[in-house]
């Protein structure tokens, strides 16, 4: 099989930390890594099949591809499906291929359905069919968290502490249809969680994330403070993260864990194209190099 390059990284943000780090490490390793923006991809359908092209030119065929930043919204599924099917036919290694095959969209609701069905611990969560049902539950459960099921990096997460804040939420999500796109959880007064990075079914490492005073979000992208966490000494967290990755058939991902009110680890969410800027800074582990080596092995 002839390949035009070693790796293609598909992204919506070519100047973000991860693409820049992956490019930097590829240069050090003498690896031909190309960064392609999704907006530059065209799809051609004909009686001869489907073809992808890049700004009207031949799409390069690499040894491996890494899809980043496309989101879990179903509106992106056709483009993702086209990329996956086309590169499968070319013999390219696809990071998280088996997971994408089974779950084209791995939003938070899909995650919780699957996690809870096999007995993996999750935060007690609620989905409501109507505004009326939400209001009835919400008014007796302040404070609570509302999460957009396709949000990431701490975006689309709201802490609701009173009637006024609930009214503001409902101005944004002002129909039964929009309310169904939210996941609701009782607020856990523990502004600390773990991000466990996994690759090839093994734990790469973990970092502890702590929210700054006055903020309930611990994400590094939201100003959270990060430090290395010795997950090798925590069999409970290690087991949950490993079993979560097996469940979702993932090659590479971040598993976010948090302690519940009983002090037990629970799964907050899984991100199959997780950011790793804070992780590299906290742990000094070279994630970019590990991902490149994994794709080329």
Note the topology:
Layout: E1 5-11, H1 17-28, E2 33-37, E3 41-46, E4 49-54, E5 57-58, E6 62-67, H2 77-88, E7 93-94, H3 97-102, H4 108-117, E8 125-126, H5 131-138, E9 144-148, E10 157-160, H6 163-172, H7 176-179, E11 182-186, E12 192-199, E13 202-210, E14 225-228, H8 235-247, E15 252-259, E16 265-271, H9 277-283, H10 287-296
Parallel strand pairs: 1-2, 1-6, 6-7
Antiparallel strand pairs: 3-4, 4-5, 8-11, 9-10, 9-11, 12-13, 12-15, 13-14, 15-16
Helix pairs in contact: 1-10
Characterise the protein shown here.
By secondary structure, the chain is an alpha+beta fold. It folds into three domains: 5-96, Rossmann fold; 108-121 and 189-286, D-amino Acid Aminotransferase, Chain A, domain 1 (2-Layer Sandwich), CATH 3.30.470; 125-186, Dna Ligase, domain 1, CATH 3.30.1490. It is built from ten helices and 16 strands. It has a five-stranded antiparallel beta sheet, sandwiched between helices. It has a four-stranded parallel beta sheet with strand order 2-1-6-7, with helices on both faces.
What key phrases describe this protein's structure?
297 residues, alpha+beta, Rossmann fold, Dna Ligase, domain 1, four-stranded parallel β-sheet, 10 helices, 31% helix
